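Teaching note: in complex prediction, the entire set of molecules is handled at once rather than each chain in isolation. The prompt given to students was simply: 'Predict the structure of this complex.' The entities are:
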Amino acid sequence: MRKEMKSGPFIFFCLVAALWIGCQNHSGKERNGDTLPDTSSAVDSETRSGMDTECSDTDTVEGEFTADPVVITDRNWPENHGEADLCLWKDDRLAAFSFTIDDNTAPEHEWWIARGNEYGFRFTWFVVSGSIGTAWGGSWGDFIELFSLGHDVQSHTVTHLSGELDITAEYADSKAAIEEGVPGAKVLTLAYPGGEGSELNDVEVASEYYIGARGTYGANNPADNIQYMLTNSISGSFNLSELENTYSSLPALLNSESGHYRGWQCMHFHQVAADEASILEGFDYLGNNEDDFWVGLYREIILYARERDTAKLEVVSASENRIVLRLRDQMNDALFDLPLTIKVRVDNEWDNIVVEQCGEAIEYQTQWHNGNQYLLLPVVPDRGLVTVHP
Ligand SMILES: [Zn+2]
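The expected output is the structure of the full assembly:
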């Protein structure tokens, strides 16, 4: 297997620095209701009938509403009953981290499985589909096992850009092969191969098949300006120093004084054996800060951030016995179906709280902060009104 360049960005033109707008900081009091339908009667009839009547929004597109802006702040704790906030990251974690493993690297699967069991983290393999059946490439059975353990299998092209195939085939055929080889896997993201042949990479072609793609520029990704088709990723070595090399510092993601506060760090690994001790320091750091880091699959972090960037959260109504929320986004609902986390402030007296979206119960977490009760709700955008009541 060819060795990839350890660092350095691909020579791509950057994608247009689009204004990735998203959503933060919702307050029922500040909402001006410009696009709100008059839902009071709908809510009343829903209450009377005991059924949700609005069970889906049509697939909303850009321009239909203005997404809430993504603003990097400390965690938000809405003050009043019924106020809600769309969390920057899953489960209101401060920052995100993703482990990714390239080039199949089958001889080390057992090492990763053991670390996953030990730390509770899940990892993403970027698979060279044409290498399946070799000692280094492993078998489909290997990847079926990893997938069954909650790890993920995404694309690293068919041949690692050996030159045998054109770039469309490299991107499209690997996606198809992996989805066939690992039933249930949704191959939505790509890691651009580095090293020899990397000049063949093409962001525009990748965009036709994938919703996100990983480059190898070794820096953190800012939460409010992710270049989805060319995300940054640091080559297999943790920088746990806050003061030096801030561009790759992991602690900087938790430091509100840092320009990287609340960002996402992605790391890519090949063989870990030689650097095991220092890599495990990084695992320990993440494990010791598990309340602050969302250690997620690459695909899920892309889904979350892109939904969030185009989302709008509305408090449709809030009374002393019911709160109704609406969450929409502007992404294709067939692909973008990951729940986003909504934090809602509820009366401290509320207990035995029920949360439903379209008649389906939603499991939620309860948090207390400064003596106030909050719920964290996992909600898929565009699936209808969410009702919260004791
Ligand atoms: Zn590679």
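Point out the following to students. The domain at 94-303 is CATH 3.20.20.370 (TIM Barrel). The first strand starts at residue 84 and ends at 86.
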